[in-house]
Prior knowledge:
The complex is a heterotrimer of chains A (140), B (109) and C (288). Chain B is an all-beta fold and 109 residues long.
Amino acid sequence: MTQTRRQFVGTGLAVAAAFFxxxxxxxxxxxxxxxxxxxxxxxxxxDGITLIAPEIAENGNTVPIEVDAPGAAAIMLxxxxxxxADVCTFNFxxxxxxxxxxxxxxxxxxxEVVAIARMPDGSFKQARQNVRVxxxxxxx
Amino acid sequence: xxENVVPRVRVPRDxxxxxxxxxxxxxxxxxxxxxxxxxxxxxxxxxxxNRFTCAFNGEMVVDVEIHPGVSTNPYFQFDAVVNExxxxxxxxxxxDGSVYTETADITVA
Amino acid sequence: xxxxxxxxxVSAAVFAFAAAGVGLADIRTGDSLVINGEIPIVTxxxxxxxxxxxxxxxxxxxxxxxxETRAMQADDFDNPGMLYVEQGIDAFNTVMGxxxxxxxxxxxxxxxxxxxxxxxxxxxxxxxxVQTVEMQVIECQTERMGMEEPYGYDSQQMRNMVALIxxxxxxxxxxxxxxxxxxxxxxxxxxxxxTAYGQMELxxxxxxxxxxxxxxxxxxLSQGQVNGFPTYRLKNANIVxxxxxxxxxxxxxxxxxxxxxSPEFVALExxxxxxxxxxxxxxxxxxx
Lengths: 140, 109, 288
């Protein structure tokens, strides 16, 4: 195997760019901006929120994600390495039976998925998980 | 309007008062991100479901703000607490102004 | 990175396994799939006699996928492919063509077609050739329903209809006939299967017989079974036909593919289907 790590990573980026049709990914600043808009810059705790994502996603087009933050008023999901960091925000109403939600999201390559919960008292909690995205063998 | 947009929902047929029941929803929709280009290099305009809501007997269960990072054929699963017999109302809002709705009844003993 | 180095990277990865042999080390075999808690699926079985030992065990493509992808196929609500089956049901009950018929006019309900998918492609005596399910649909539309423009072989409408016909047969054992009048097509299909195509000089067998379970880049090669087609591919976020997949494979060898619906691909579909005799129909399966 003569392929270098750099070539391999480069191939991954090319695949990610091809799949979103745009090479530009969200900058760290954009991610921070999205978080700032949701939290107002408040400190975030790490307990009381669970983010379940696969360690390795077989395809970045459809990655199953589950978030659970007991008592939360809202949970925002972010994908730090996508062209747009915002993925979706769940606002829970009075008839919610829990503060859990599952969905399927797009990930443009390996990156960190971030979940931030806003609690009714105005505090915030966050969980992060890195997800590797498989580079398909045949046009995958 | 996107073609063949069909919502599907699944809730239990019956439950006991105060139960938390699992609700699953899926809608066929391309969720065109607005970030892709067609074969000629022209940008394909964004067209996504940008909001989804679920209410039970008029009371909000969940209200989801959606961006292009949600996959084609958006899928959501969550829990709702049911205290009486009634009906879930599901609403999906499309970028083009279309609104898709579905209802599901549940009998609470 | 230059285009050349990208291509170099791909071919290096492809040839890295060339001498390796099958590798099931990081594939979890022995798990069972039951769809909706009621349709048992055969995901591992004894090879058919005609394989003459080429495979020690026949594996469904489901075996090679991650837990998340596997789980999506276990429940019809989680399986996005079923969205297209539902569109197929609507079409099944819709009058099309000049004769005023819908599919339901002759076939009553989709379940009445449950014996179709497991035995196709099959010899059609009237037309003197092996027919796929798609060809059968076109035959109905043009010869019995009076449609001047039947569904395109790989159109969304056709894939929806074929997915519906597969879905009602899930759990039934694949059993395509390879002898009698179908033998010539089957022989042609076998020849194509073992022929190296493209600049990379790869045959179906190089990947799917000699190297299933191994990584091709970061993806596990399967045995290339077709019992799960039309398959919902996460990559396409849509259902994909058998011939479309064949075309993709040959394209990736940097070869010139046969046409969708061509006699060569029909023959190859018959041969590949026969390699999965003993598995069960899974369409629409969920794959990456």
